[in-house]
Amino acid sequence: MRSRARLSFGLAFLMMISAQSGVFMDFESPSEELSDLRIMESTARSVNLVDVPAWKINDVWSYDGYLDVGAFVASSGVSSNVQYLEGTLTQTVSDIEWCDVDNDGEIDWDLDLMCYKVEGDAYYEAEDVNLDGQDGDLIVHMDTEEWISVSDLSVFREVATFNIDFEVTIWWWTVTEDIADLTVTNDYHPTLEGYDFPLSVGEVWETDYTVETDYSGTSDYVTIPSDSSSSNTTSWEIVSQGYSGTFYNGCAQSYNITNYDDNGDEIGYKWYCPAIRGDIRTSYSVAGLGIQAEHELSTYQEAGRGKQVTVEIGYPLSPLDFEMSAWINVTSQSQPVSDEYVRFRYEIGAYDAWANGGNGIAFQHNLTTESNGSAFLTFNTGHLPDGTASQGELGSHGIIVWASGSSPANTLLGTTTVTIDPEVHAIDLVSRAEGVTVERTRGNRTVTLDNNIGFNAIPDDQLTFSVPVLNRGLLNSPATTLLVEAPDGSTSSTEIPSLSSLEEMRVDVVWVVPEGQQSGDISLTFTVDPNEEIAADGNRSNNEGSFALFIGRLPVASLSIVSESLTMSEVSFNGLSSYDLDGGSFGCEFTVEKLDGESWTSSEEDCVQEYTWDDDGVFLVSLTITDDESDQDHAEAYITILNRPPEVEIAVDQSSVPVLSPVTFDVEESGDLDTLNEEAPVEIQWHLPCDEGQVGVRCTVTPESEGPFTMGVTVMDDDGVTTEDTLTIEVTNIAPTNPRAEVWLGQNRLVPQMLGENARYTVNEGDVLILRGWADDSANDLSGLQHHWSPDAELQPELIVSSTGHQSEIGHTYDLSGQHLATLQVVDDDGASTETLIIQFLVNNIAPSISPVAPLLPVIEDELVQLSIEVSDTLGDLPNLITCYDLDPYANSDSEGNATDDCDLESQHLAHSWSDATTAPDYIVFHVTDDDGESASIAISIDVRNVDPDPRASTSDYNPTVGDVIVLSANGTTDSQFDMENMLYVWDLDIGKDSNGDGDPTNDIDRTGPWIEVSFSSEGTRTVKMTALDEGEGASMTLVIEVKKEPFSFGGMMADYGLYVVLLGLIVILVTVLVQRMRPPEVIVEASVVENVSRRRGRKISMDDAFDDPEYDPFDSDKKKRGPKRRADGPDAESASPEPERMDGELAGVFEELTGEAPHEEAVTEESTGTVAASVDEALDNEDIEALFDD
Q1: Is the whole model's pTM more than 0.90, yes or no?
Q2: C-alpha dist (Å) from residue 984 to 319, 361, 967
Q3: Chain segment 664-674, per-residue pLDDT in tens
Q4: How is domain 737-844 classified at the CATH fold level?
């Protein structure tokens, strides 16, 4: 932090100084155009007096510049890469006021000095720099205030306020770190006179001054210095006139004013340009800090000057206490301004009172301009010196005149300078030898010679002498000549026109040094008025001047040095073979390129130097010899410094080690003589990975292969040169170890439920498992390891699967549930084996599954339902699966389990039908069971729908006679088998007569049965309806029977004697029945007509089936072929016709077979006897029926 403070303070100090003195850079001025290249040629040019300028409020000078702080940062100890701070400087005349020189707090015009107040604003920045490990921007803001004397531009006071910040950007935020806020105030006593008007090349002046510095401000990093007071000496010299290196209109002829410290060392310079009333270029080196500041003018903004105020004096020179005339002129647009109130001020007395303790005061006079725009007065120039010591004068003092407008900004100034010379003459022409400037052109390089360079030349150099001729008299000098004598004795002259007081004429003389010019001192002599034609010249001792320089030869530098050497070796080199052709001694300066690229310079009187490079590389060594005339020659050579390779040796404490066992190697010896890092002279890298890391002095490795094992190490020094060492030990065999296995199911690796040596995996029957195994061994054994797998060691010990290689992989499937053991043993090529690895498997049974079944379509009774169902299970269980259909889920037919697990049909395929829709189930169950008792079932919905019967009816006679017995048959009616067996046949013998009185004559149940015998008691048309009823609504058909009138009146008789006939008939019937029972089977008997005869329900079958099927037995109750008894609720049958018609067809034959008589042989009337022939069911026994069907 202290280094940063030092840096900040140094910048602040630099800025304070640069505000006063400017910043300077050494630029080469272009040479004057030569008129000819003859031995001697001269041209003349007149130089006007460069007097003190008059400023105006709002005059502005803007500069671009930078601060070179590289050397300062390098020496300050701060860690930073900052080199330049670039920025701008603007200076503005803000006010014209009084300087309180006596510091009494009051303004006394007769004792204080008239001053300009100049305010400056500067901004400098260095972007992307690193300061103490932080990256950011270093920013310097500077505000200055300077109080500058109007009379001579000397500095009375300056105040500089600095704000130094370091900005760090973090993401999108800028953090500003305040380095310092500092205000520095300098008060100079006497004023610091950086100019000595009027300016003239060669003029030198010196000032002894005291500066009082006050500090104020705050900073977390900078310690604010204490106030101080110090005395110093500084000097200035106008070294040249010409181009400054910075172009600005009107500034081609500028004056180089160089500043020196009390040791005579150059500390800066500035180029003053009269056209801009200020400096065009400045360069300044802060002594002791290593900071160089540079500024160049970018713009000059002159404040408006509608009026001009000037002052003219009788003479620019004055003897002591001379009464001088002065004219104050006011013009506006080149026209005189009359009645202008103006003031005249001569501050010599006030300055002397302040600077030297005198008792004088300033002379000030108020005037008004006449009609010609001028005001006249006289004043006494006095006899007091100024604050500088200058040759040939007592002092130069400024004269100020001004006219005030309506505001301070309109204050118009005029200034001039009077120089007091105690030895002034009316005419005094001077050949100013001290003002001679010399430009030397050697090859393509032109330099202006000065004391630092030396005034010397060699043959073929072109020298341009600028010789000044000055009139230091009061009066204008007559025209005359200047005689110039060349070093070879030849002369040349040129005319000098009349010169006013202090006017200067410069004569340029060009001389090319001849090739044969002998070495030695030569001189250029120049004399003004050589014939002494000007009698009024009061001092002829200064009419002649001479300028001496040395013509010599360049020295020859010769560097002797070896081409190669080792690091850490001292290399001696010398310039002893160098020489100077013009005699004399010379100095040797060696410049050596160091390791960091910087240069090390040393001057040696014996011209011998030694140097040691600690690291290798190619380095440049230069020799510069400088003779007494400051002529130089150079020689250089490259030397190659060879690196010393590093050294290394390793060791181990074992000669052999079992494979896969660690062994440690150590670096016993290592080093690098020419290392730059004493803590780590070499980088050590083992050839194999180490437990400690591959870089280090120790390496523990584990050999993975049997046989010789070689460990190597490489060390590298800081130059990249390497050295290797190796050591070999024997690695012996070991048995394979640590057998391991993985179980994979497809792409998934299974995780055991039990870890450790006896891992347990839970798998399912039928899983296709991949068993992978491996073991540890030396690398050379891995590929030959034998893997022996027993995937089912307990149940299938004979199953062994072997393979060779680093890893093994087998596939296995467990078909049985339960626990299984797999084992692995790994054997190497030496017969050594691992312990047996046991892997447990818990195999879970997989329940069978049933594939989805598509819904079944509805079926009708007796329609075949066919179904095939797919089941799945593991491959081991599939052959042993039991598949069953439970056809009646509502009944537990096997009295085991529940009603839905019966095995009515063991198959995957079903072909079954249901005859009765009422008793058919609405679903069936399919179930499958594996050998572990695991089962799956599915319910399958079925829909068995009833089919209405297809009724058929016929009669034995469609035209019977009243009283005839006819047979009505439902033979031909069809339905499902079950419905045929349980069919109910209902007969309505006359659908035109409502027998049951319900209002509907068509729904009477007169008789039931598949066939009936009836007779009608009256003639007419009968519509008979037969209805076949199953569990549904049934179906009907009608028969139309035409009953004919009877041929006799048996019916009438029955009406008259009906009761008796009935009784008799009953007796006859009883006798007949008795006889019939007692006679042989072929005897035919008559049976009474029985009403409400019970009807047995048998199997449903059509009448055609009854006649066609010989097995049919409607009377066998054991076989349950009778249906439920039903009562015949129909009306009494009508009496048979006395002459019944003969039956036709099969019915007549059936009747004859049943009774033994033809149908016409016996007739029974319904109403007279109350009996009828026995019904077929009552009259026939089993044998008759069987005989009938057999027939």
Answers
A1: no
A2: 174, 165, 17
A3: 999 988 887 87
A4: Immunoglobulin-like (2.60.40)
